[in-house]
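Q: Mind making up any chain with structure tokens?
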Amino acid sequence: MAETQADIDAHWMRRALSAAERAGERGEVPVGAVVVYDGEEIVAAGNATIGACDPTAHAEIVALRSAAEAVGNHRLVGATMYVTLEPCAMCVGALVQARIDRVVFGAADPKAGALGSVFDLNCGRLNHRFAVTSGVLADETASLLQTFFRSRRSAVSVVGDDTSLAF
């Protein structure tokens, strides 16, 4: 039986979920991204904003930087990014600049999503547009985030007024 695009997307989203889980283990918000070109993984990355002290170190940005370095080009024409959470405006801007062909995401982000939830920056008004597939393994990706934030809220309530756990 031939593999469908849905099967392929689920496979790569599981890889992104693994990267997200590793980020969560480091205390980062568990978002993961994978860049795939010609059926091969170029890079997998997770959020690194806390560890890198870098507000731009979202999983998508970390993955784009590494993928561009790996292929020796700032343009990733023909590549697909799989990301566990709908990208924010900053990340969509970077995806446009990288000339990515396709973005596949899991959970929608009703607070910051820029591919339809809050904004749709892939609207055709920018200098590049990419294909978007949403909702791939959405329950699993959302569950990972919900579990992470639930545990953080529990830790904050146990500690009391200590704001060092705030994010």
Summary: DSSP finds five helices and five strands in the chain. Strands lie at 32-37, 40-46, 79-85, 102-107, 131-133.
